[in-house]
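Re: [ENG-882] Designed sequences occasionally contain unexpected residues at chain ends

Forwarding the minimal case from QA. Structure tokens:
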């Protein structure tokens, strides 16, 4: 065991914070109480959102695949995403116990919609149960944020970091869905935290870190980009744990640490496939692109099951697809390197942006917390760079790791002494909380006050930033109560089935525009990229209502109507 004087400065008790036993009894329960309150409000926000939203575009695929795992016990669809996140979703699907039609043949999207709408199941109940395990996991990652920040900046810093996490509109929005973005990001954060702790007890925390790395890889393949960083951090932690007196021995230990973490991570990936199918059967049911060059070599050398490697090929194929983007009124094909930074600027609370920046500077500049910089800033920077250079400009969910890592960094601001620092940080956290609460329960289309709030997000961003098909149920209620009996023309972007919710509508793009009378209802992502006949219809129509900040109701031509707003 290392001598006391060899410990990094961060491993000594914080001088501004007495040991727990020295705290007055009245103060000992304040931090657990605050943690409980923050996580409780986050749980209420996520559960309410999960109850009120209809399936988003990706969710039926994951829920349908989860049901396949439970009933077929093999990987049939969705190889581009490994099984672990869908096994988490399957926990809720198992409780819901939907009727599963094993005779249905269709692609992964059709399979999910058939399970929800074509098999006699209640999609509201099934989706809620599918979302609940992801909500629970999101709350658990909040504890990781708190623990990481507390180790760096004490109870106050940990509480501030948790508050930023718990009020993050992006984390609440995507943590309440049966999708994979938050679970993958949370596992990466957990791996970074465990590697930080491995500086003191490598034998305990390195295997756990390897399991967290494997969990991230077994959830989303985007985690592959950060694996070299995490392995480097494993080596650095062991180097720091052993000191530098015998460099040769330290290098051997560091190399062993890298190998050990990698072996555990790979084993976790294999284990997730074995849980689904102990026989590891795999016959592709979709086109698997051929990948050449360095990407092909990476796939060939990857020590993962064949289904995983085929999923990598599918993901690389997606990178060659001409995706269409939308940013501040501009429709374009391909990707813009600055899309994600701009989208984060729009969709992150202003107080949170300020605390992110101040916390990052603190981590880099203040000696007391500088050793944590590689564990906080390097993984998030590499992941952000990888997402920025990707082909899909479809939402800040591709950067949902930012509110996690930078919440911890922001908490480090509280290591600076002075009442003014604490007061300013507290005011900014309060500003974040107010901004987030004002958006309740419309977290998906959130944008901050500088960009007009949720009602204006559709003017600047599209897809999962604002309109992911989540408001079909709200649209049905709005039409039923405010516009009964009126003819509806619908352009809906989503995976829901309008007729299930009682919406009887026609597609206005298939008829002469002069025949479109009554109500023209258009998902905002479709309106943002409208062209041809739909663009002409919107141009000569008047907006009279907005549903959930993601669907606009228009009145074509000069037909009058009452203007309403969400």
């Amino acid at each position: 065991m290392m001598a006391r004087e060899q410990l990094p400065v961060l491993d000594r008790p914080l001088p501004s914070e007495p040991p727990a036993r020295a705290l007055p009894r009245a103060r000992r329960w304040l931090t657990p109480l605050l943690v409980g309150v923050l996580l409780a409000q986050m749980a209420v926000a996520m559960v309410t959102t999960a109850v009120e939203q209809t399936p988003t575009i990706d969710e039926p695929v994951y829920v349908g695949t989860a049901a396949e795992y439970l009933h077929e016990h093999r990987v049939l669809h969705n190889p581009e995403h490994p099984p672990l996140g869908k096994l988490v979703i399957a926990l809720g699907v198992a409780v819901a116990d939907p009727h599963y039609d094993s005779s249905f043949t269709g692609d992964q999207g059709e399979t999910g919609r058939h399970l929800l709408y074509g098999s006699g199941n209640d999609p509201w109940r099934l989706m809620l149960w599918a979302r609940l395990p992801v909500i629970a996991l999101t709350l658990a990652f909040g504890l990781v944020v708190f623990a990481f920040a507390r180790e760096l900046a004490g109870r106050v810093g940990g509480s501030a970091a948790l508050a930023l996490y718990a009020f993050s509109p992006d984390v609440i929005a995507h943590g309440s869905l049966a999708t994979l973005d938050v679970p993958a990001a949370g596992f990466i954060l957990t791996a970074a935290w465990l590697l930080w702790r491995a500086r003191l007890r490598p034998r305990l925390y390195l295997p756990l870190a390897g399991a967290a790395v494997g969990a991230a890889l077994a959830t989303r393949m985007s985690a592959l980009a950060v694996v070299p960083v995490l392995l480097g951090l494993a080596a650095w932690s062991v180097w720091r744990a052993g000191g530098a007196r015998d460099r040769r021995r330290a290098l051997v230990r560091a190399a062993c640490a890298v190998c050990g973490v990698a072996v555990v991570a790979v084993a976790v990936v294999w284990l997730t496939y074995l849980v689904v199918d102990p026989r590891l059967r795999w016959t592709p049911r979709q086109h698997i692109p051929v990948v050449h060059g360095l990407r092909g070599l990476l796939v060939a050398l990857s020590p993962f099951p064949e289904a995983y490697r085929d999923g990598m090929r599918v993901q690389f194929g997606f990178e060659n697809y001409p995706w269409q983007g939308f940013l501040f009124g501009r429709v374009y094909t391909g990707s813009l390197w600055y899309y994600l930074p701009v989208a984060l600027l729009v969709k992150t609370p202003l107080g949170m942006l300020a605390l992110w920046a101040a916390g990052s500077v603190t981590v880099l500049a203040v000696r007391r917390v500088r050793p944590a910089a590689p564990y906080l800033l390097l993984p998030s920077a590499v992941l952000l760079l990888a997402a920025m250079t990707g082909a899909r400009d479809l939402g800040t969910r591709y950067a949902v790791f930012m509110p996690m890592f930078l919440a911890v960094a922001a908490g480090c601001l509280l290591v600076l002494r002075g009442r003014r620092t604490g007061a300013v940080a507290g005011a900014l956290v309060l500003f974040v909380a107010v901004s987030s609460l004002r958006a309740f329960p419309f977290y998906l289309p959130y944008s901050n006050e500088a960009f007009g709030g949720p009602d204006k997000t559709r003017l600047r961003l599209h897809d999962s930033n604002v309109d992911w098909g989540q408001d079909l149920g709200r649209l049905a209620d709005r039409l039923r109560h405010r516009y009964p009996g009126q003819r509806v023309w619908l352009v809906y972007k989503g995976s829901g089935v309008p007729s299930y919710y009682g919406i009887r509508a026609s597609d206005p793009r298939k008829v002469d525009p002069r025949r479109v009378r009554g109500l023209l209802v258009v998902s905002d992502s479709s309106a943002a990229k409208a062209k041809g006949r739909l663009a002409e219809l919107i141009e000569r129509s008047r907006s009279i209502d907005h549903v959930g900040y993601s669907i606009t109701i228009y009145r074509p031509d000069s037909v009058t109507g009452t203007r309403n707003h969400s």
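QA comment: On inspection the terminal residues look reasonable. The beta strands are 324-327, 330-333, 488-491, 519-523, 541-547, 551-556. Proposing we downgrade this to a documentation issue.
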